Amino acid sequence: MAQNSTGGGKGAFINVANNNNSVNLTQTDGGSHYAEVGLIGGNKTVNITQTGNANQMASVQLSGNATSLTLQQTGTTQNFYSIQFNCATAGGCSPINVKQGN
């Protein structure tokens, strides 16, 4: 997790439990950036990047089985994204990629 600011505040609440979870969070530049991430069970990989001078907000909660999520919020316009994901398929779940901003 990296938080670097040339202005606005940075905040992250990250909960991790069980198995092979990993989270990479980067918050930089002048905007106020907030992320709340929850992972439970299985193999998880989550990468969240929040950059730019606009306010960026994200709330991600996942549970069960293999998951990969990449969320990128950038630019000069405020972005908000919320993902709740409860995958229980036998073969795992597809990656989720979200890009907001320019």
Would you report the number of β strands? 9
Overall mean confidence score, pLDDT: 87
Structural class of the secondary structure composition? Answer: mainly beta
Ends apart, CA distance between termini: 23 Å
- Tally the helices: 0
Describe the strand arrangement of the main beta sheet, using strand numbers.
Answer: 1-3-5-7-9
C-alpha Rg, in Å?
14 Å
Strand content: over 45%
Largest sheet: 5 strands, parallel
**What characteristic shape results from the CA principal axes?**
elongated
Unreliable runs? none
Give the helix level as a range of percent. Answer: under 10%
Summarize this structure as a short list of keywords or feature phrases.
102 residues; mainly beta; four-stranded parallel sheet; 59% strand
Compose a concise summary of this entry.
The protein is mainly beta. It has strands at 2-3, 10-17, 21-27, 33-40, 44-50, 56-63, 67-73, 79-86, 96-100. 0% of the residues lie in helices and 59% in strands.
Explain what you see:
The chain is mainly beta and 102 residues long. The chain has strands at residues 2-3, 10-17, 21-27, 33-40, 44-50, 56-63, 67-73, 79-86, 96-100. Strands 1-3-5-7-9 form a 5-stranded parallel sheet, with no helix packed on it.
